[in-house]
Structures are given as structure tokens and as C-alpha cells.
Amino acid sequence: MAFGPFPAMRSGTGIYGDGLVTDPKNWKEHKAEFLIGLKEAGKDPLTTPVLVEQYVVVGGQKELNEAVSKWRFGPKAWKPYFNIRDPKEIEARAMREVPAEKVSEGWPIGTDAGAHIKVIEELFQSGATMVNIHTGQEDQIRAIKFYQDEVIPKMRASR
Fold first, then answer.
1. Per residue of the chain (159 residues), what is the pLDDT tens digit?
2. Residue 31 is part of which domain span?
3. What is the pTM of this model?
4. What is the rounded CA–CA span in Å between residue 14 and residue 8?
5. How far is Cα 41 from Cα 35, in angstroms, rounded to an integer?
6. Whether residue 77 is found in the same domain as residue 44
7. Which of 15, 50, 129, 157 could hold 37 in an S-S bridge, CB 3.0 to 4.6 Å?
8. What b/e sequence results for 105-135 when a residue is b if at least 16 CB atoms lie within 10 Å of its CB, and e otherwise?
9. What residues contact residue 3 under an 8 Å CB cut-off, 6+ apart?
């Protein structure tokens, strides 16, 4: 996993790694540094795996609130929270420091398969080779079935 320009280019990824695991924001902001590292190492960007973890919410405000409450620390997980050992302290700081709307920025929310597909397709078009779907809502089965029945078949049909 790499976050920020230096790790994306150097630590375990572009030069030394066999691929990249990251989130959509860091992928979009630091893709260029990763590609520079690949080039410097003589690696082919077309054969180097890039897994992007995309958070989603299947449902409405209730499900969004559930997911945000579990992942409130997300926007600051690597800086500055990564060095805090006590999860209660991380949670308390995140509640004070991270606005709820910041947490779900860039997440597809709702039951419109098209909105979810759009976000995923944009990641693939940007060079991601795998997209890992993640949801923090209580009803995980609902999200899995939605993707099984509504999102994946439509994505397959469009390829």
C-alpha cells in the first residue's frame, strides 16, 4: 500500500514492488510518481497490477451514516493517525477533526447501478487493473447482492 508521492514512487511500489494497492484519491493524485518509478526500474506499466480500494454505499442516508461512522478516520488514516496506538484515541480525534462529508467524498451512494458503474469504470480507465469494493454499512449482504445482480452483469455486458 502506498500513499503520497514519495511512497508511490519509491517504497515498495514503482521501483521495488510488483504492483500497487491504494485508494482512488492517492491513485489520481500520485499516479505519475508511481509511473516514474516503474519507468526508472524498467518495468512495464501495462503489466504491473494496480489495485484500488473503492468504498461504496448501497442504500440511503441510514447506510451512509453507518459506513461513515466506521471509517471516520479514513481521510487521515495515514497522516497523522498511523502512529497512534490506541484505537479509541483515533476514533475520538477523527470525530473532532474529520467532517462526515469528507469521509464519503468520492463514494458512490445509492441504489442506482449506473452511479456505481461510473465510479468503477473511471478507475479502470485511469489505469487501475483491479477495483476492490468495500462498504462499511451494516447490511453487507445487501451490498454484495446489489453488485452481484445489478453492477457486475451490466459492467460485463458493456465490455
1. 555 555 554 444 678 888 899 999 989 988 888 888 899 889 999 999 999 999 999 999 999 999 999 999 888 887 888 889 999 999 999 999 999 999 999 999 999 999 999 999 999 999 999 999 999 999 999 999 999 999 999 998 887
2. 1-48
3. 0.85
4. 6
5. 10
6. no
7. 15
8. eebbbeeebeebbebbeebeeebbeebebeb
9. 22, 23, 26, 30, 78, 79
SS3 at position 109: strand
- Residues 44, 56 within the same domain: no
Q: In which residue are the cell numbers 461513515 written?
A: 68
C-alpha cell at 85: 496506538
- In single-letter form, the type of residue at position 91 comes to E
Q: Could you tell me which of 131, 148, 123, 128 has the C-alpha nearest to residue 58?
A: 148
- What is the residue whose three cell numbers read 479509541? 88
